[in-house]
Amino acid sequence: MDHTYTYIGRDAPVNDAAAKATGQLAYAADLHLPGMLYMKLLLSPVAHGLVRSLDTSAALALPGVAAVLSFQNTPSVKYNRGRVRATDEAPDQETLFTDHVRFVGDRIAAVVAQTPEIAQQAVSLLRADIQPLPPVFNLAQALEGAPVPLHERDDIIHLPVVSYGDYASAQGEEFCHHTATQRVSHIAMETHCAVADYTPATGRMTVWTATQSVFGVRSAISTILDLPMSRIRVIKTPMGGSFGCKQEMILEPLAACAAKMTGRPVMLHFSRSEVMLCTMLKHPLESDIKVKFSPQRTITGLQLHCRLDAGAYQTVSPDYAGSISKKLSWVYNIPHMEYYGTTVCTNTPTTGSYRGWGGPEAAIIMENMMNAAARHFSMDPIELRLRNILPPYAISRINNFSLGNLPLEDALLLGRERFAWEERKARLAVQDRSGRYARGIGMALSTHTSGYFPRKGDWGTVVVKMEEDGSVCVNCNVHDHGCGEVAVFKAIVGEVLSISPELVDLPEGDTAYNALDNGCYTSRSIYVLGRAILDASKKLLEQLRRNAGELLGCLPEQLSHKDGRFFVTKQPQRGCTYSQVAYYVADKGTEALFVAHTHVPVSNPGPVAAHFAEVEVDTYTGLCQVIDYLAVHDVGKALNPALCRGQVGSALQQGMGLVFCEELKLDPKTGRALNADLQRYHVARAYDLPNLDVLFLEKPDEEGPFGAKSVGESCYVPVAPALIAAVNDALDLELSTLPLEPAHILSALDDKQAQREKGRDTKL
Length: 764
Fold this sequence. Notes:
Layout: H1 17-21, E1 37-43, E2 49-55, H2 57-61, E3 65-70, E4 100-101, E5 107-113, H3 116-125, E6 127-132, H4 139-144, E7 156-158, E8 162-164, E9 173-181, E10 193-199, E11 204-209, H5 214-225, E12 232-236, H6 251-262, E13 266-269, H7 272-278, E14 285-293, E15 299-311, H8 317-327, E16 337-345, H9 359-376, H10 381-386, H11 408-418, H12 421-429, E17 437-446, E18 460-466, E19 472-475, H13 485-497, E20 504-505, H14 525-552, E21 559-561, E22 565-568, E23 571-577, H15 578-588, E24 594-599, E25 609-618, E26 624-634, H16 641-660, E27 691-697, H17 719-731, H18 742-763
Parallel strand pairs: 1-13, 11-12, 15-16, 19-20, 26-27
Antiparallel strand pairs: 1-5, 2-4, 2-6, 3-5, 7-16, 8-16, 9-14, 10-11, 10-13, 14-15, 17-25, 18-19, 18-24, 21-22, 22-23, 25-26
């Protein structure tokens, strides 16, 4: 059914665009509290070792130093930085500071002082005597057995096998494929910062931080510092991007501990290098997949071994590896599946949450395999997919839930036509491949998630209230990453109540006012919280309508509403404003105009994405240029098309970096980062972006707000395999180890040429 909306489906800027553009938006690093101290960390210079002694005397003697924190005088509680609630199953391996350092950058101690400069100077005066231990720097070394364990337990975690059917009994030709990805940084524009303030007289702690879960931060601080949750307030500050790097609780417990120790506010603000070394990175991954294909080239079975390098601490890696298994069978019909997941600790920077949480990994493994299989079987990659995709409303074989209207076929067919796939294929088939430049096309198909259901309990609780002047305040535990959730939520309220979104106030996450919530993870914000806001707004509208009927002396069902006003449908001139209703209710003195509502999702539709790319490769230099890119996206309903397009563009840029240039490189002998700064760590720039065409499929989901599904992570999921496929098509290669840096491509071309010459010699 078609709807004409006033605010939904319209382009609009993010709610704080003007404040950002004028430099008026205050981030955590802009906070200045009376008596504030500044915290700097002493980080391990070695990859593995035991701290035999720590001399803090010179640092403490420096004027302006308030305290030195270390493993000697802070809680030794082991925790997991990714644990959102205390009941989450996760290995506890980390402490605030450690005398057993496990990577270059591990935390030994910290100084809090009157200025950042004094704190940094004092850190340089700390003297740590470290006994080196033999390190392991990669998956292969660790799996063979570390000479000295990193932890008492859980250095290597083999997940329970995820399976259904019987792969061994599946019939067909077995096709094998290997994919490997690298260690990359999120490169959010805002570096990490947390401010904590503790009042000894009341025992109350307040923390300001750009986090994805204010309740996760509260839980971590409560656990580590043994403070009642009721006395800990966590306020989400404006966030300059996350992509997952602000999901774990890293800085907040450190700043809180220092504030409690000194009784003064403490700011911990990381530099770019510290973010790249000491927060989170994207996992290096090794995967080996076996897939059996019938003579008709339909999949009959799949077996996957996937290994993730967790870095020094497991944190969220086991759950991350588990999420890959759940996403493997959401696109293709796979009758038999076996998944073997392993997460391994190494003496390298910690890895964990990254945009898509297992979805991009599942896609790069599956889609690389499908593209390679298409070449192996001399088939068109779109045709191979059409033979294997799931139908609408397919039931996931894992967790047994409907995947929604799932327009996989629509996405493939529309993309094939819009991208002129057949015409491009014909044009590129006759290109002169003896020259310097070669072009190729590639594509990938994927889906993702729109919340936790049914993997774990999920809900969204909101309060929507009408003020006396007709404006509206919404209490909702939203964590906007900078991509516009707050603007969309205001538009939802505005659409339901027929008022300008500018009249809606919607502060972000604050544990003092919000009900307990899961946080901004797994693409749940729009689908879960957005639906809660929609339903609450409808309930508030009915409360207003009932009271407006009393005020006007008519039945509620006789009223219509528009532009902040009720009127008798058959007598439009007879009406009242929302403000008049609000004052009427207040004067009546029997109720307040507010609705508290909890939405519990009972569905989780998969937002389909089909991406198509044309890439040109310079065979002299190995450099790649993306020429054209099409992203076909099933969003259910684009609540704000401009913001949706922005998400897709950012995903393409991020995916280009992953494929072509990004990698945090470590010295293979010492484990030291070789490029932990933006001078030597290369990313895709705006200049590198191609012509981007975005096509939205708008088939509304039955449960989503106005039919919407998620888009913020799903648009990143298929980017890498689509680009890899285009490069392989251009060069007639089977590259599947990232990044595809120029040296990597030139080496592969040299190997290919050597094989050709060897073949000619054999014939002679």
